[in-house]
Amino acid sequence: MIGSLPTEMEETEEISTSTTEWRMVSDPKQAGWFFSQELLHSNRDSNSLFLRVDIRQDKEEQDRALVTFYNRDNVQWTSPLQCKLQGDVATGSGVDRHMMSTVIFKLISGFHINLGSAAIVKIFEGEPDHLIPSVSDELLDNNMFTVAGRMIGHSFLHHGPSFPGLSPAITHILFGGSLETTPVTVQDCPDLDIRDTMKMLDGDAELKEFDSIHQLCLSWDLPAPNATNRKWLSEKLLLHAVIGQTRRQIYQFRKGLKETGLWPLLIQRRDIIPILFPRESEAQVTPQMLLDCIIWPSSITVTFESYEVKDEDESDAIDVSRVSGYLKTFIDNASPAELKSLVKFWIGWEVPATEMKVEIVEATFPTAATCFEKLRLPRHHTAYKTFHQDLCTCISTSYSGFGCA
User: What's residue 188's pLDDT?
Assistant: First the structure.
């Protein structure tokens, strides 16, 4: 995922890279960064895009605001982006990071919008690392796969989280691979009944549900099963279930990605594709990954309204050491979901930054200055149990706003 490049690169006002630099650099992450910066810089004078979400509204209204923003046509998605969390005092780049993270989180977990009977609408379905587009006609009619492509491309442009877990078979077709060489597996089929049918056809036992299997084959323009074609038929059913039923969805998805301007990069630098669509295991934040990014404090920081003063009292070193140790213990023992929530609370999204600062301060609860990638922890904790409780309470607010930040 993109997000670990030097901060000074992100703050550069004038981009000096040539139009070929992203083609020449060997590191795909750097290539993606150069391409995105060049594209955003070339459209810096365009009218800004304003993405606003009111966190005082219910989940359905918030999710609808995101979908409505990305469901507009004739939009220059490389224009400057300004994000606003209405009902939250947070401002600056931390809000932009939070919004991009929320967009990808919603693509993974589902949107609370009223499309059909489902309480939560998932654009992709299936098991981890084998996600495929939903076969819902309602999602197609509402252009939701174009929306998904725009969301993923837009997050990439702004160095946000990638979309993990997409089936290699879908990625293969999405970027022009042939049907004959599609790396489809039974795990790519989210319909368990179809999986059972394929398993029966692939075996040698007598078909006990011949009529239902025959009807399924007829509905997909395939011949009736017999002793000589059953294994071939099993393969065709799998290919149709995964690719045949989702061709229009993939077309929409590709269209959305293209509209964000990423297509030249993705076609000419195929090594970028695994960054855009990583395996779910690769997208997880590990304890060591996070610990390697942390800049630990050496003293207590006393924060005033407009400036900070380092307290040099040597006795405070005990508090710094103790509370820092609590954080290390939390990170070492946290689940992947807790680590992502911590990073999101800390800097605004789940992608660890190169330098993530910790301060030990006079405060009641943990807070975060997301724009400065800084986590502030209270010095008063003398037991890990209460530290753990307070930190968990605070980081649980990261998906509804900035909470105490």
Answer: 96
